[in-house]
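Q: Can I see a sequence and its folded structure?
A: Here is a first one.
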Amino acid sequence: MPLHCGIVGLPNVGKSTLFNALTNANALAANYPFATKEPNLGVITVPDDRLTRISEIVNPQKIIPTTVEIYDIAGLIKGASKGEGLGNQFLANIREVDALAHVVRCFDDDNILHVDGSIDPVRDKEIIDTELILKDLETVEKRLDKLKKLAKSGSPIDKKNAEIAQTIADALNEGRPARTIEVDDDGEALLKELMLLTAKPILYICNVDEGSVVSGNKHTERFIECVKDESAEVILISAAIEEEIAKLEEYEEKLEFVKEMGLDEPGTNRIIRSSYKLLNLITYFTAGEKEVRAWTVRNGACAPEAAGVIHTDFEAGFIRAQVMKLDDFLELKSEAAVKTAGKLGIEGKTYEVVDGDIMHFLFNN
């Protein structure tokens, strides 16, 4: 269950530079609009020190982390919802991802052009929001016309769906993204069916100069104030710093460089983890001599669903799961010791997986 996260923003805000740092995929990063035309895809590992700590005890032949698939989507401009630039293509690319990482430019540099001629991350965000909202409004209005016709038949379900669609349309007309609209379960189902661009969970990334990566600057202060009511996370990143870190080959060199910049870890690590959490995903582990591996599952999943992430046969033939809590395993240093201490859980189909669980599944072939 890889997370598909799309990096979006205006041209020349640092999306491709950041993508390169995240993936070392060497996407074209150039000082002119539309340097990226097709979405670049990179597969990146989710940093998780728990995987390392488990492996130090088990000493497996292989260590396999969980991954995130990330797309560098070409920059949007005003009028994209009407096909300006390469608008329709870009918006179609956005529709395919599960979550959005919206990069805004929060640094001054006369040598790097801005498509609108000045640095204003709040304005830039509003441009992207407007284009996505306009496209969503087009989608909703088409569905609303159909639902109104169906509602004339008197079906309570069709009437309610028409009311929900009208509520969504009203909110979009007010400039509110679909993710901010409060609806009931029926409304959630309709939102999911509509696949609205502004319904996707979002992470904001402020691309700053090297001197502002710790404390921010006037641009980030304005931007954080602007999004305070969205319940969205805002991360400060210097794409230039991340690019330099990515060029270093040795882990120790990377660590030293990060410390010199006044950081605890590369900003890319925070982006990956935040993107992972954005879709309400958690990690469980399997551990044996052949491999220690991290697996992705949705938060709230029960044991059979978690087993199905490994193989559909595991879910279909699920009998039970053996579960060790991470802290118990790290303290007692072996499965045998956990079992002797009476802390090896035997769980059935209704067991809800907890982030960090170490699991082994028993199933019928």
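Q: Show me another, different protein.
A: A second, unrelated one:
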Amino acid sequence: MTTRRKVLITDTTFRDAHQSLLATRLKSEHMLKIAGLMDQIGFYSMEVWGGATFDSCMRFLDEDPWQRLRDLRKAIPNTRLQMLLRGQNLLGYRHYSDDVVEAFVRKAVENGIDIIRIFDALNDVRNMAKAMQATREAGAHAQATIAYTRSPVHNNDHFLQLGKELVELGADSLVIKDMAGLLSPFDAYELVTKLKELGVPLQLHCHYTSGMASMTYLKAIEAGVDVVDTACSPLALGASQPPTESLVAALKDTQYDTGLSLDLLAEVSAYFKEVKQAYDRPPDEVLSVDTNVLSYQIPGGMISNLASQLASQQASHLLPQVLQEVPRVRKDLGYPPLVTPTSQIVGSQAVVNVLLGERYKMISTEVKNYVRGLYGRPPAAVDAELQKQILGSEKPLDLRPADLLEPQMDTIPPEVKDLVESEEDLLSYLMFPQVAVSFFQCRGLDTPPAVKKTDLSRLNTIDSNFLLELNEISAYPVM
């Protein structure tokens, strides 16, 4: 007899799916109206928080992200709630001190999170260790992430060694995070087979950008993966995840049957087909398969960011050159995986190189900090000439970047002492100072002010800080 093994599903509709397809704009009210029904379906977990949603709540939706979490926890009492955390970066774009990481994780768990998926853009385990420790101390499940990419230094043996290090750090489970849809079906079978030997549960998260994700899921399931990430079909495919209903139907009456009800899933699907009409339609490249990702390894959301930057400079015709420049910059920087914040760092520098017609004529502050080692240890050596241009005779730092940071939770900065009402508010401020202050000042007003538009003309100065800011708030962040 064939051994039956139920495949578990994590639903990403409330986080990654709308971040990928609706510019992270899904409002809490539209989540809460369907949350109770989704709680009945029987998902292994629901990813509802983290990534870019925290920033977007305050910046664009006039919502308190902490209140969103509390409301969702109340509406979803039976299903594990999951979030995405950028390791020592938390939900921001730089490293934070250990006491901030500890406080944030503790508050996330207190407000309703059960599982924290922790990743680092460079797969530098030093940048994940504190968040993993804090998660377990808070009584939650620490899921350590392997950020999947391809390069001369990234292969399945490399990822297996990374998995071993994460298990030794105390990971409760592992997840393969394939943010660009690069993981092919047969590579997935091999990698899952190897990682399962480490003895912890294994999850797979793929984006559909290349069109391979559903095939990759099936081979991973055959190899023994425990959980896969999917989204409700109206918010699936393209830059999002594979559709839940299709996978459930494909596995029905097999040894991998999920046991989930297609009838309940259909009700949820009908709801989101209607709800998404209230939101701006994303560009075609976000909705469709984009096989350029296999050549340039640029996630669909990142292509949208690059196109937006070039359009603001009346330079859309340069997009093909930028797409070719991104892999070159990535190689120069030691092949970092293209995920926040390295995707923004690499992409913005590629745009500058092309716009100025000369490589590294101007180097962004973020690239300089990266080469200095302030984001962590690159997967491979940085180009020697570029390193010399930035550092001269100095050597890059070889320590955990957060070791350079002083504690920040002891005092409330004077500029916000009259605005901060809780420890959660302080954490919001420390991650997003300007956005949080604007949100605090408008909190409780009957008619909040209109969202401030970004002044795209500032890009004419090619200011490095603005380039990163533009990517942070761009409509389709890469996660």
